[in-house]
Specification:
106 residues; seven-stranded mixed beta sheet; single chain
Length: 106
């Protein structure tokens, strides 16, 4: 069975607060392996390097809005651009959407 694409929602307020925008993001659910993979491309606003801690978080939800899991990655210095892949293994429930957002201090 092929992987299913999930809806991705980006938190724009967190993009503004951190100076890091989510340029592209997609998420796929593989029911055979019961896994979700989230792929994202992140960029500093205004092409100015962010030489501070930044993180990227993903929250996985089902159709009713129940939180099924979270995952995150982070960098001591973000720089100009990053790509990231987050993985959810042994998902509890049927995922429908992912909310993603950058964060600032740890």
């Amino acid at each position: 069975m092929a992987a299913t694409r999930l809806t991705v929602n980006v938190d724009g307020a967190m993009e503004k607060a951190t100076g890091v925008r989510v340029e592209a993001c997609s998420a796929f659910y593989d029911p055979e392996d019961n896994e979700v993979r989230v792929f994202a491309e992140l960029a500093a606003e205004g092409q100015t390097p962010v030489d501070q801690f930044r993180g990227f978080h993903a929250a996985l939800y089902d159709e009713e809005g129940t939180l099924l899991g979270t995952d995150a990655d982070s960098w001591v210095e973000f720089g100009l651009r990053r790509t990231v892949q987050l993985n959810f293994y042994d998902v509890c429930g049927r995922p429908a959407r992912v909310k993603v957002f950058p964060t600032a201090s740890p």
